[in-house]
From TrEMBL:
Protein name: DUF2029 domain-containing protein
Region (Disordered): 640-700
Organism, scientific name: Streptomyces xinghaiensis
GO cellular component: plasma membrane
Stored InterPro entries: Aur1/Ipt1 (IPR026841), GT87 (IPR018584), IPC_Synthase-Related (IPR052185)
Compartments, as annotated in UniProt: Cell membrane
Amino acid sequence: MAVGALWLVVALLAARQTAAVLQLPPRRRLADLETWIGENGVLRAGQPLYGDGAFTGPPFTGTPFAGLVLKPFTRAAEQALGVGWTFGTLLLVVATGLVTARLLPGPLSRRAALFAAPAALVLLVVSVPVRNTFTLGQTSVLPVLLVLTAFLPRCSARASGALIGTAAALQPAVLLFAVLLWAAGRRRAAATAAGTFAACSALAWAASPDDSWTYWLRHAAGAGLGGPPDSPANQSLHGLLLRLGAQGPLEIALFLVLAAAVAVAGLRRAARYAADGQWLLAVALAGCVAVAVSPTAWQHQQLWILLAAVGRVGRRRADRLVWPVVVVLVMTLHRDALVPNIEWIGLIGENAPLLAALAAACAVPFLTRAEPEWLRPRPAPHAAPAAAGAGRLPLLRSWPQPLTRPNLLLELLLIRVGYWVYSWVRGQAPDGRWLAEHHGWQILEIEAALRIDVELWFNLLVARTGWLESAMNFAYSAFHFLVPLSLLGFMYLRRPVLYRWGRTSLAFATLLALIGFWMYPLAPPRLMPGLGFVDTAHGPQDLDHPDFGALTGISNQYAAMPSLHVGWSLWCAVVVWRLTPALWPRVLGVLYPVLTTVVIVGTANHYLLDAVGGVVVVVAGFGVRHLLIGRTAEKAGAAGIPELPDPAGGADGAGAVTGTDADGERAAAERGPGEAPGRGAEPELAGTASGEKTGAPGES
C-alpha cells in the first residue's frame, strides 16, 4: 500500500508539473525553446546561431550538434510542439528515474527495491533542475539519461561509449565521463566515447562550419553564451570567482588552476567508487566535477548534484541522513530556505549547489561497500518501546526513543527550513481585510461579554508611558526567538532526551498554529480601524492603503489567532519546569508567559483571547506528542523500563547506558575474515589498469 501511495504521489507531481507548463500562454511557455525554434527563433530564421548576423533575437546557447538535432523541430506546429515537448520531457524524466533506481548498488532488500524507483522520481520531479528544464524547454535531461544508461550492467563497451560520446556532443562537459571510463579500466568504452564525440562534432562542423568555428574557438566551447556568467544561476567555479569580484586574466588563471585541481581529485574519487561497484555514485561525482569546472553551469544542468545523494556517509545511524537531506534540500528549495538572507551568510545560500558539488566531488567521505557500516550503521542507544497505556495509546509505541542527541547539522538545517516553511505558509494564509476585521469585531464582542476587553485602555496607558512603551517594544521583538532557541540549545547540550521531547512538541504546536492562521484570519487591535489603538512597535499604519504600508511586505499581518508569542513562552515555562527543581528558575518560567501576555496586549498586537489560543495550541502540541510516542525516555528510565545499549559500544558518547554487545560479537564471530555484515564476501572490484574485462558493468 505504501508503494502504491508513493506511485500516486509521483503521478500527481508529474501531472501538476505538466499542467503548470501547458497552462502558460504560448509566448511564456518553454521560453528557451521558443527563442530557438519558435516563429522568430534563431534556428528557424536561418541566421548564424551565435548572434553574428542580422538576427537580433537571443542567440542559441547549445552546441552546433544540438542545433543540428533541433533543426527538424522547427517545422512542427507551435501548439503541437509545446504539448509534445512537455510530454517528451516527462518521459525522459521517468526514464531517468527508472535507470537511476536500476543503478543503485546492491544488495537491496525487497522493500528498498520496491521504493527505489518511485522515490527517485519524486525527487527528480520536485528538483530545481527538472522544474527549470520543464519551464524553459531545455534538453539537459537527455545527456543525463544517456550517461546513466551507459553505465547499466548489460550495456556493452561500444554502446556505453556511443551514448557518452553523443551526450558530450550535446553538452561538452560530459566528455569528462570518458576520463572516468578510462580511469576505471574501461578503455575501449572511453575510446569509443571520444570517437563518437569527434564524429558528431565533425558532422555538425560539416553542416555549419561558421557556427562551429564560433562556438568552439571564439566562445571556447560555449563560454559566455546565455545569461551573465556572474549570475547566481551559474553555479560553476567561474561564476563563483566572478561573484567574488575576480576579473580579467587573474580570474581566468585562478579558475583554470581550481578547475584542474577539482577535476583531478573528483575523478580519482569517482574511479575509486566505481572500482567499489558504486557506479551511480561514481557517475554523480563525475557529474559534480562537470558542474564545477564548466565555464557555465545553469540550473537545468545541475541534475548531477542530486544524484550524489545516493552516497552513504556516516558510521552512526544518527548521521546517515545528513548528507542526502542536505543534497535534496539544496536541489529542491530556494536559497533563502537554507540560510537567512543576511549579507555575511547569504553567500553560502547563493552558492549552495556549487558548494554541494565541490563537497561531493572532493571532500565527503563516502563509505565503501567493504566497510561493515555501509549496510549496518551503528545505532544509538534508545529506550525500550513504551508500555501500552489506556486503550491503544501511545499510537506509535514501537517508535524508538534515542537516548543521545541527534546530529547537530541536520537539526539546524531542519529548524531553518521548518521556520522558512512556517513563514511561507503564514504569509500565504488568507489575508482579506474585510474578513479579518469581521473576526476582530467578533473577538471584541466576546471579550466585552466576558468583561475582559481591557486592550484599549491598557494600550493607551503604555503609549503614554515612555519607559513602559520602550520596554514592551524591546520585549516583544527580542525574547520571542531568543528564549526558545536558548532553551533548545541548552537541552541539546545537556539534556538530549528532553531536547527531542521539547522540539517535537514545539513543532506540533507551531503546526497547529498555522492551521489557526488559515482557518481564522484576524486583524490585531492595531489594525482595527476607528478604535484608537496605537501601534507602539511599528508606528501609525495607513489603514486606507490596501497593504497598510510596508509591513505586509514582510509577513501576513492578519495571522493573530493564536498568539505564538504566548504559546512559545508557555512552552518555555513548561520546559524550565521540567529542567530544574529549583524554585527561582521555575518562578521566572511561570512569570514569562504572564509577562508576554501583558506585552502583546500593551503593544496592541493581540487580544487576550489570542493568548488563550496560544495556550491551547501548545497544550495540544504536548498532547499530540504524548498521544503518538508516550512518555519521554527519561521518565521511562526512571520508571524502571529497561534501556537498550548501543551495539557499537556507545559511539555517540552515551556512556551512561550500560550493557554488553553479545549479539554483535556473535555475529562478528560467525563472519569470515574480510566479510561485511549481511554479505557473503567482499564486492567484486571493477576495473584494473591493464584490461577491459574486470567485472565492471557494461563490458562485454
